[in-house]
Structure to design on (958 residues):
């Protein structure tokens, strides 16, 4: 055969390659489409180590793989906690210790058995006892944990303060996930960054799905059902997480998807259309979140209290809410509106429903602060957040409102990965940001967003103010066991924060939504936005 | 020749050192604080100072540079602060994706560009020439992002939209694939009529006519395939559909795989179905990426061939009775090859370094996407490594091109000696 004829001949033979013997790997597998759910997200996962991450893209995958001792009630997160890996628990009368009975017969994905020692190991790692972590975003929430005793299937936690209810709420968060002891033992000799990668790549929990393939570079995250799951093997076989970052593209993807999908970041402008789609289920609910403008109390440009109070008075929520496509409502406290401690009557000092009067008062305050014509910048994350669907446009609305009181405001977007870590540096005077609670406790708002520890404001506290009296109030409210007394304590705290610190302007509380095919039933979606497929059923077309 | 080789190697070595120094300084010039990035939410001034001390960032620059050189010599490019994964591990996945895309685009550019260049040089000042030059001009002038969106709208599967541009096109009508395929087929089949009139049937019997006939038939065929089987266009996102194929598991777990999916599916996996799936994902981005190099190669080929075809030895070759194909391919093309090879070499560098837009439009998980992600996340080490790799690939490709001169024309090496 002449050389020039070789290529066409090879091309002709190509289709027959399928008939050739398979390579050593046993061929390339195709996924069974009849038992597959595609989860469409705006964020992709990069780290699957529950103790070292706080990123939403990671958490969506983590909650499928790992489980916690207790969990929030999927029907109403404000109700009492439910057992998960702990079958039951008792709190000592003084509120300073909790004893868990750990569930028996539970296996990790790597074959290890669940017992109290396994749970202790995970909590020790969370507290960096015998382990070193790259970062521990929620480590401070477990700072009250003192002694951890493990005996068979009994785990006893002793606390530094009588804060058992808050500690139980913290333990229900993904950061309290129990990781396979086999996996954690192997990381003890590793450097923190190597350990994080090791836990990520070999993720092994007790959850209904185990990690099948994780390749962030190729944007592939695939989970397979865990046949040995203690509640029974799930019927959904495969979950593939697919990032469609752009909002418009995500909307089109949902509408045109050929297989079974679930999307957790549904473009708000499509809610009505998708809600009436006969193939889809749109589930919406008021999220335990708050969108707010953080105002630094230590920054050179906003350090005067009258100026911060003027900013709080000048902002009108109505035009801000207009950016949310009827899926948000004005809010006036840092704690989410769905929480029991929210009080609609609490407003910043000098509040008047008549905006003209507020503006007049705000102008006086600006004058008092000597801040007329002062140049300020509102920083916002470039990426949409659940509480900020259009950060740039919302920031622009606020900019225009602050102009009315004589402030010269500009707007600057920053990548969230750059903006969020830099808040602690104190270099931003105004930050448009928000928060969604992970555990449904009011402490999960005030402690990270308005308090700190050891004389220092916490990382997420945009006001950067650490106030000893506020700190005492936060600590005292944690220890209150009577529900009504606790609500009163947080309301008093809110008033004091708005009067003396004025480090934030609450703006909105939003609805959130998930959408999925009607073929998919019994998906469990809880109030804090986590969804689980362990009981889900996929019906035929 | 050896002296030439040694001189070129030494020069490239100096250039590489310069590149490394520039990349090192880039790290220090950027307004990114590595300590803030690494500490994230755990940032505090004291911790940041401690970390800078631990990382040696408080040392004098020359000391840091020597340490950087030492790490490079060990193949240590650092870790991503977002995932904490070694940059070398991430590059092992991103590089093959970009090289596969770049080489496919280059192959298409060579085939189309050289072909177009030869065709136009053989028929100067004809409709072929005007048509070829117009294609080249359009290829150079149209921005990649526009061409990319156009390709997506015309030939993409609108059921798999993943980027804003794709969504915008879809929401403004979209789903044009069957019509565009049919229209293109019709245009290709009918176009010869415009140029050759009555000699239409005779033209279809000639090679150029057969090419047009084939392409037109294929495009029309695709239109029919859509109506008959519901094939709705080429896929748009990524190297493969991770919801259908477990290709990444196959590559990770099978000995002998390379990360080059065309090779892995065909040679290692021996799975034609998977191979065609990978090809279908590769085709549109490769075509879009090849547009500029195709145009440049076509113009260079035309100019270079134009000079060679009037030479005496070409006339001699024709006088000897050689066929037109032998004269063009064996005598003219080889002598016209030096500028073409230079262009191809530099274009490969651009394809590897400049695929950012194409990779973003088509969600291609290669170097371009890697760089964009690193910039967005202020992830310095991956950014530094990517810049270094692109720069080094330029230096190496230039070296290869220089050495290929000497191979193509021994006078080059001799003359410089």
């Amino acid at each position: 055969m002449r050389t020039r004829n070789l290529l066409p001949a090879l091309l002709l033979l190509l289709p027959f390659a399928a008939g050739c013997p398979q390579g050593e790997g046993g061929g390339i597998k195709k996924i069974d489409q009849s038992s597959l759910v595609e989860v469409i997200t705006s964020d992709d996962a990069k780290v699957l180590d529950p103790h070292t991450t706080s990123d939403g893209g990671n958490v969506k995958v983590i909650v499928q793989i790992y489980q916690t001792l207790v969990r929030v009630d999927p029907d109403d997160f404000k109700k009492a906690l439910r057992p998960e890996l702990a079958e039951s628990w008792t709190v000592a009368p003084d509120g300073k210790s909790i004893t868990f009975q750990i569930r028996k017969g539970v296996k990790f994905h790597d074959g290890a058995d669940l017992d109290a020692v396994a749970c202790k190991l995970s909590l020790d790692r969370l507290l960096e006892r015998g382990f070193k972590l790259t970062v521990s975003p929620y480590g401070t929430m477990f700072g009250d944990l003192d002694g951890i005793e493990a005996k068979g299937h009994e785990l006893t936690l002793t606390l530094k303060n009588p804060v058992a209810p808050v500690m139980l709420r913290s333990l229900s968060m993904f950061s309290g996930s129990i990781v396979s002891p086999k996996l954690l033992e192997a990381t003890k000799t590793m450097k923190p960054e190597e350990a994080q990668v090791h836990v990520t790549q070999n993720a092994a929990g007790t959850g209904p799905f185990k990690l099948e393939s994780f390749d962030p570079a190729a944007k592939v995250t695939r989970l397979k059902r865990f046949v040995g799951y203690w509640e029974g093997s799930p019927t959904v076989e495969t979950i593939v997480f697919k990032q469609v970052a752009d909002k418009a593209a995500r909307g089109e993807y949902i509408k045109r998807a050929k297989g079974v999908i679930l999307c957790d970041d549904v473009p708000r402008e499509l809610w009505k259309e998708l809600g009436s789609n006969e193939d889809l289920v749109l589930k919406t609910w008021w999220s335990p979140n708050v969108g707010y403008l953080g105002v630094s109390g230590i920054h050179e440009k906003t350090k005067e209290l009258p100026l911060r109070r003027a900013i709080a008075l000048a902002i009108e929520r109505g035009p801000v809410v207009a950016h949310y496509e009827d899926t948000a409502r004005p809010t006036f406290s840092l704690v989410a509106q769905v929480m029991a401690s929210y009080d609609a009557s609490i407003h910043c000092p000098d509040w008047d429903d008549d905006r003209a009067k507020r503006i007049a008062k705000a102008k006086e305050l600006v004058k008092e602060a000597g801040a007329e014509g002062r140049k300020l910048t509102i920083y916002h994350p470039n990426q949409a957040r659940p509480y900020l669907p259009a950060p740039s446009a919302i920031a622009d609305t606020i900019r225009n409102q602050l102009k009315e009181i004589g402030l010269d405001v500009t707007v600057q977007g920053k990548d969230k990965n750059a903006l969020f870590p830099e808040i602690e540096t104190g270099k931003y005077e105004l930050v448009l940001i928000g928060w969604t609670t992970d555990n449904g406790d009011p402490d999960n708002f005030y402690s990270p967003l308005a308090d700190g520890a050891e004389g220092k404001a916490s990382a997420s506290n945009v006001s950067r103010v650490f106030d000893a009296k506020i700190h005492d109030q936060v600590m005292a409210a944690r220890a209150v066991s009577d529900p009504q007394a606790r609500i009163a304590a947080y309301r008093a705290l809110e008033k004091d924060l708005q009067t003396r610190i004025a480090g934030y302007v609450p703006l909105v509380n939003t609805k959130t939504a998930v959408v999925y095919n009607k073929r998919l039933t019994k998906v469990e979606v809880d109030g804090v936005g986590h969804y689980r497929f362990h009981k889900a059923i996929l019906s035929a077309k | 020749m050896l002296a030439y080789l040694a001189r070129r190697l030494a020069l490239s070595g100096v250039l590489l050192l310069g590149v490394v120094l520039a990349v090192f300084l880039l790290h220090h010039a950027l307004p990114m604080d590595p300590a803030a990035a690494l500490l994230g939410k755990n940032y505090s001034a004291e911790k940041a100072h401690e970390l800078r001390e631990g990382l040696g960032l408080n040392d004098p620059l020359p000391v840091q540079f020597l340490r950087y050189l030492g790490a490079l010599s060990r193949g240590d490019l650092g870790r991503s602060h977002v995932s904490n994964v070694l940059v070398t591990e991430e590059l092992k996945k991103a590089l093959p994706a970009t090289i596969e895309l770049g080489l496919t685009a280059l192959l298409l550019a060579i085939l189309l560009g050289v072909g177009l260049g030869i065709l136009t040089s053989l028929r100067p000042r004809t409709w072929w020439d005007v048509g070829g030059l117009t294609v080249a001009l359009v290829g150079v002038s149209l921005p990649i992002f526009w061409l990319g969106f156009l390709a997506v709208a015309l030939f993409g599967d609108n059921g798999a939209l993943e980027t804003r541009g794709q969504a915008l096109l879809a929401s403004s009508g979209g789903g044009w694939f069957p019509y565009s395929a049919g229209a293109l087929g019709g245009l290709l089949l009918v176009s010869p009529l415009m140029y050759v009139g009555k000699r239409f049937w005779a033209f279809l019997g000639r090679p150029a006519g057969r090419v047009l006939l084939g392409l037109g038939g294929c495009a029309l065929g695709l239109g029919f395939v859509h109506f008959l089987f519901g094939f709705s266009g080429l896929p748009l996102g990524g190297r493969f559909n991770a919801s259908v194929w477990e290709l990444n598991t196959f590559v990770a777990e099978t000995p002998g795989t390379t990360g080059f999916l065309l090779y892995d599916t065909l040679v290692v996996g021996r799975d034609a179905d998977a191979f065609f799936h990978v090809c279908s994902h590769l085709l549109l981005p490769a075509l879009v990426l090849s547009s500029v190099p195709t145009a440049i190669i076509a113009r260079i080929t035309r100019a270079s061939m134009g000079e060679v075809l009037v030479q005496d030895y070409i006339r001699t070759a024709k006088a000897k009775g050689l066929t037109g194909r032998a004269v063009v391919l064996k005598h003219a093309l080889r002598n016209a090859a030096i500028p073409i090879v230079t262009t191809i070499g530099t274009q490969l560098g651009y394809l590897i370094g400049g695929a950012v837009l194409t990779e973003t439009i088509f969600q291609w998980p290669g170097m371009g996407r890697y760089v964009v992600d690193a910039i967005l996340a202020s992830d310095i080490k991956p950014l530094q490594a990517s810049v270094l790799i692109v720069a080094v690939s330029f230096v190496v490709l230039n070296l290869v091109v220089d050495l290929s001169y000497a191979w193509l024309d021994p006078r080059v090496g001799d003359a410089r000696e």
Remarks:
- Chain B touches chain A through 66 residues (CB under 8 Å).
- Chain B has a mean pLDDT of 79.
